[in-house]
Amino acid sequence: MAVSLNCKSTTSAVPILKLAERWLSEDKDPETRKQIQLLVDAGDDTKLESLLRQPIEFGTAGLRSRMEAGYSRLNQLTVIIASQGLAAYVEREVPNALSRGVVVGHDHRHNSNVFAQLTMRAFLDHGFKVYFYPGLGPTPQVPFAIKHLEAACGVMITASHNPKDDNGYKVYWENGAQIKPPLDAGIAQSIRENNTPKNWDAASVESETNVVDVTESMMNAYYKAAQSLVRNPELNRATKLKYVYTPMHGVGAPFAARILEAFGLPPYIPVPEQASPDPDFPTVAFPNPEEKGALDMAKAVADKQGVELVVANDPDADRFAAAEKQADGGWLMFTGDQLGSVFAAAVLENSRHQGIPDAKLAMVNSTVSSRMLKAMAQKEGFHYADTLTGFKWMANELAALSKQGYYAGFGYEEAIGYMVGNQVLDKDGITALGVFVQLAARMHAEGRRVGDYLEEQYARYGYFASANSYFICPDPQKTNKIFAHIRYGDSKNASSSDKDDDDGRVRRSEIVRTGPGDVLRYPQTIGGFPVCYIRDLTIGFEMTDVDKKAAGERIVVKAGEYKPTFPVSSGSHMITFETRNGGRLTMRTSGTEPKIKYYLEIRNTDNDRIAAAKDLARMVDAVANELVEASKNEL
After folding, report:
1. Active-site annotation holds for 112
2. Cα end-to-end span (Å), the chain
3. Cβ atoms within 10 Å of 515's Cβ, excluding its own
4. Which helix (H) or strand (E) element contains residue 210?
5. pLDDT reported for residue 559
6. Which is catalytic among the residues 112, 160, 190, 351?
């Protein structure tokens, strides 16, 4: 969910030059003032429209955008008004908010420090105590401190692994988790009510009496808490394991070094060109360890030194990635789901080592992540839940389970985000690094690899093969048409049950919803495999055993029946299908990019890799040709 800040009257009725005049009257940053003034002088109304007309949206991750002048971008003015509105909302909604205080941190990106100082300025002006990390730091430091200090909220200035011209304003609530609806809407409304920038004087903000530098105290507490995840300190200290680490030009290096020391593990071998923070990310096309080629430099260092393991954080160190050389000499680049399975198994072992009953252990992952975690829970007996995509959902789910007496042991999303242990209610690449290298050290002592450990999980829980990708579709109307065709076939009001589509391949059954009054005609099969489950979070529909209930016949759904348990959002598309061959497909639109994303997985309970690969290939082809009709729609 994203809510427009609607700064002042930036509506279509206001002439663009009036908006430019307003900006120039409010902005005190010479650089961004100059950007707008030059556009005014040049008469570039098109660019002015793109910068000023549509205000930046406040979503469930806060703000994130390109750093540039204008109400639609991230800059000093939009940071000030966001902070004013957030401070007013927190003061109103959180008990004892002023004395409990706010935590503020920042990474190394351009303008991150000044954005953090302006954020502090607004909270101080409201009377808040401010807990501050003045140095460059990883994102997990803020949610950790909120929880540890019982602060009222927190703000981290970071754009994670976005391109160098972006920055972000990430907001956490009093429980230490990212905000979720309806908090985002409430904060956005408060920003609209406090949208005149009041105070730009942040030069000496760090020396004010109500500001507390918590770097040393919180980092000491963070590493102490992480030691609960140390499994075998003697083995860690004795290991001969060697490995290469890269922070991807980000802030992670000193924090990675210290977590490894806390675990008693040997230091890493650095990638010299990527070891220091650099906001321009000069050696990578995209500063994201997931991207193809992002770890090539680290692998080259490993090859040169005869090392078989590479580990990495993204620039703000909340994500973690790893690659391992296998017996055949090739590199295994672990997928996000494979790492999730490895971490889950390690967490289960560690919780048993600590004496935590399986029934009291809780693990979660996002609904687009692998179902291996669910299979593990069914076999081992721990509590499992899946959530919508994003750690705001997973962390809040784990926070709620903690209140019910569960140990919040693990949460992950396939986009290499891992919450290992309960010390941080967000993804934490630093702790994940320590736990992973510890496991690698154990495998090394046994003459094995982490890849072998993953194979053990496949043997126990079944083989899971995945294919996640996307189609670029810059036309929103075409995207809507594609999803309408998936839901309704050729016509919303088609009356012929079990009718073929015009291509003669996709067979559909009619599901008549008497309440909403539309006729759903989802595909009966995907890649020839019967569809047994459908969940549509755009229109609010969920049904199991669809093939048995439909069987080619018309189904009448009464008002209120088959409502999904997850929140429904009509503003975006998200449909999940499951098929009788162990397939699961989720298709959704991206909130930030012109993409139709899909997440496809096949489970083979016999651990038959060849059969799983064949099924996966058939379903990938079906996504392109039967569902989105990529060629016809020129995707």
Report:
1. no
2. 26
3. 12
4. none
5. 74
6. 160
